[in-house]
Amino acid sequence: MSTTTLNSQIATFASGCFWGTEHIFLKHYPPSEKKGIIKTTVGYTGGKADATSPSYKLVCSGTTEHAESVKIEFDPRVVSYADLVDPLQEFFYRTHDPTTLNRQGGDIGTQYRSAIFTHDAEQEAIAKRVTEDVQAKHYTPIGKKIVTQIVPAGQWWDAEDYHQLYLYKNPDGYQCPTHRLHW
Description:
Blueprint: E1 9-15, H1 18-28, E2 37-45, H2 56-60, E3 67-74, H3 81-85, H4 91-94, E4 103-104, E5 107-108, E6 114-118, H5 121-139, E7 149-152, E8 157-158, H6 166-169
Parallel strand pairs: 6-7
Antiparallel strand pairs: 1-3, 1-6, 2-3, 2-8, 4-5
């Protein structure tokens, strides 16, 4: 798995506006409580190969096809990758609506798609297994289909500084209503 510091690993998720995605992960896995998340960074990934060094404005135009994403550095001795998407907790899927294509709530565009960007074969297998389990348990019974992309992680660009920890710096800032625990 991708590493950044000794013993840490990386998970990358997109589930709408990156402010809310980052906020809900940190709310439930606060680094100060040593629940496994070491650090988060919001940024852009999953776009066109020739769209390098994208800005927020450019990503929001839809021309780059990047997703607003959160890169999570975590300590697998405390919280495993599976725990972040695990079928017992189903955390990633509980925090947004994975059945809406290229949107979360009122936020519409490819940058708001639901995606799991995997860093190795183990993450891919876990993501696919959990997606199948969540589909069968929560969405097939109500006639909905998960549209989350599960794709290899590619080039990453950090978002501008003012986006990092945005909802902690701006507690009254916009948060998509889908960023909550759904079950």
